[in-house]
Design brief:
Blueprint (H helix, E strand, L loop, with lengths): L1 E2 L5 H11 L9 H4 L11 E7 L13 H9 L1 E7 L6 H10 L3 H4 L5 E4 L4 E4 L17 H7 L4 E4 L15 E3 L7 H13 L8 E6 L3 H7 L6 H21 L6 E6 L5 E2 L5 E3 L9 E5 L3 E6 L4 H9 L5 E5 L18 E5 L4 E3 L9 E2 L13 E4 L7 E7 L3 H9 L10 H4 L23 H23 L28
Parallel strand pairs: 2-8, 2-9, 3-19, 6-7, 6-8, 11-16
Antiparallel strand pairs: 1-19, 3-18, 4-5, 9-18, 10-17, 12-13, 13-15, 14-15
The protein binds 2-acetamido-2-deoxy-beta-D-glucopyranose (4 copies) and zinc ion (ZN).
């Protein structure tokens, strides 16, 4: 947890102003409801996820827009996300602060024996509310507290959960451009006071899709990352044009990273156990196996020591650190490939050059994290956080009472520009931002923007890839259809 750089005169001025006693701020969603004076100053927050944006992509090619957010705000070097490191489980953890075993979206593909129903990104089953209702996402909580929310394509955000959709949302459609998603969100933040959203979530399919297709080691990924940085630049520019840049707190993160796979590193289950003995519920790298009635021990014994590159766990023995056990949707046997390995039934069939889903303590599985805005400190680098800590942090920023969760505000409090007035969990938290912060922020941002242009003109702009067709991430996976008969 180190501050980057020294104390420039401007930063020192900011620090000095922040040391003055804070004026009390009244704008709590819990206390104020959706109307009443002061509502116009209610804190705003935009949470953006670029799917599969691994933490170190920002160090690989020039990414001036990420770096200016980090310079103006905070960055976290290491973010431990939740197991399994897949898209749906992690996006739901970000907005609930819960491990997958508790929020119930335990995988992109799952089976619920109590419901005798399957959930799959490839079917409309994702629109069935009951899959999502073991938890309450932040947008629902905000609305129940009298606030408003908006969502553009975030997993689960076009599903009715506990009776509510986001106040404003776009139904999932991968063909809708990033720019259109941004324009809609800007509109929702800019709406007249009573209709404006307080909290919005924005999702984009890349660089996950290209990461699967090309593998993260491919040099073609460079242009994909540059393109994402330009998309971030588009967003910040639109926020500035709408006069929102100093008002809206912006968090830029992702659900998981990506690792390179190799065709030599394939584990073929058919070599060890007959397909007739089990149902294959979820795919590599954490394969969920449902043995047929009475076949649990037989299947387990055949797989347990089958391959040194595959860990085999009975549900009761899944390591505690994963917090991935206590849910009926977690199957009786879980196979976990070692990093870089792929588990298949046989070598016929689809193979991807990049994947994620592995152990969440692997560096390659971890996402980027940067944030800026009136609630955040400036030019501050933190070494470590857990992605479940983001939820209580967002609740603090939005002055909404968090539901029980697996995160802890105190772990990430240092990211905020001010200490909270109170931290008792049963008391609705007060607003954290001092009213000086926006003033200092605007002043600093002018300087930052000037600095940004100087940096930007020096950066080499790489050619973009010929545009890859955007489909729902992993919905259309595997992207590379390759017959692996060698
Ligand atoms: C579960 O549903 C399938 C159809 O989707 C049906 O064939 C099967 O009998 C059901 N199983 C139970 C135990 O109800
Ligand atoms: C998805 O978006 C595209 C591009 O805006 C549009 O042409 C298409 O009609 C949309 N599809 C659906 C099902 O709404
Ligand atoms: C591999 O599995 C497919 C079914 O998924 C089957 O059609 C094919 O014959 C199998 N190949 C071998 C070599 O067993
Ligand atoms: C996570 O939080 C939920 C809700 O408070 C709780 O029920 C669950 O036991 C927690 N999990 C862990 C591992 O602490
Ligand atoms: Zn993802």
């Amino acid at each position: 947890m180190l501050g980057r750089g020294g104390c420039s005169p401007l930063v020192c001025l900011g620090a000095l102003l922040l040391l003055l006693p804070p004026p009390v701020s009244p704008h709590s969603l819990n206390q104020g409801g959706s109307s009443g004076h002061g509502a116009k100053d209610r804190p705003k927050l935009l949470l953006l996820s670029f799917d599969g944006f691994r933490w170190d992509y920002i160090h690989r090619v020039p990414t001036p827009n990420f770096h200016s957010i980090m310079d103006e705000g905070v960055m976290v070097e290491q973010v431990e996300n939740t197991y399994i490191t897949k898209t749906f489980p992690n996006h739901y953890s970000l907005v609930t602060g819960l491990y997958a075993e508790t929020h119930g979206i335990v995988a992109n593909e799952m089976y619920d024996p109590a419901l005798n129903r399957s959930f799959s990104m490839e079917t409309d089953s994702i629109y069935e509310s009951r899959w999502w209702e073991e938890a309450v996402p932040l947008w629902v909580t905000i609305q129940k507290a009298g606030g408003r929310s908006g969502a553009a394509m975030w997993p689960g955000s076009d599903v009715k959960i506990h009776g509510l959709y986001p106040s404003q949302f776009l139904p999932y459609n991968a063909s809708v451009s990033f720019e259109t998603r941004v324009e809609r969100i800007i509109g929702w933040f800019s709406a007249p006071k009573e209709e404006a959203v307080d909290f919005a979530v924005l999702y984009w399919e890349e660089p996950d899709e290209s990461g699967h297709l090309l593998g993260p080691q491919s040099s073609l990924m460079d242009a994909v990352i540059v393109d994402i940085d330009e998309k971030l630049g588009f967003l910040t520019n639109e926020l500035k044009k709408a006069g929102l840049y100093e008002k809206v707190n912006l968090i830029v993160t992702s659900d998981h990273g990506m690792t390179q796979l190799f065709t030599d590193n394939i584990i073929e289950l058919d070599e060890y156990v007959s397909r007739d003995l089990y149902t294959w519920v979820d795919k590599s790298p954490v394969v969920a196996i449902l043995p047929n009635e009475g076949k649990l021990d037989e299947v387990y014994n055949k797989l347990a020591d089958a391959n040194p590159n595959m860990e085999v766990h009975k549900k009761e023995e899944i390591p505690e650190q994963f917090h991935y056990q206590h849910n009926i949707r977690i199957m009786p046997i879980i196979l976990e490939a070692k990093e870089g390995w792929t588990i298949m039934q046989n070598r016929t069939g689809p193979f991807m050059l990049g994947n994620h889903g592995y152990d969440n303590t692997l560096r390659s599985m971890q996402p980027v994290f940067a944030a800026r805005g009136p609630a955040f400190r400036q030019n501050y680098v933190k070494t470590f956080m857990r992605s479940v800590d983001l939820y209580p942090l967002m609740c603090q920023i939005l002055s909404v009472r968090p539901l029980p969760n697996n995160g802890s505000l105190s772990n990430v409090q240092d990211l905020l520009s001010a200490e909270p007035a109170t931290s008792a969990p049963s008391v609705p938290p007060r607003v954290s931002g001092y009213s000086y912060a926006p003033v200092v922020g605007s002043f600093l941002s002018v300087v930052m923007v000037l600095g940004f242009f100087v940096v930007y003109v020096r950066e080499v702009t790489l050619k973009q890839l010929p545009s890859l067709k955007h489909r729902r991430r992993e919905m259309s996976q595997p992207l590379l259809q390759e017959d692996l008969h060698l």
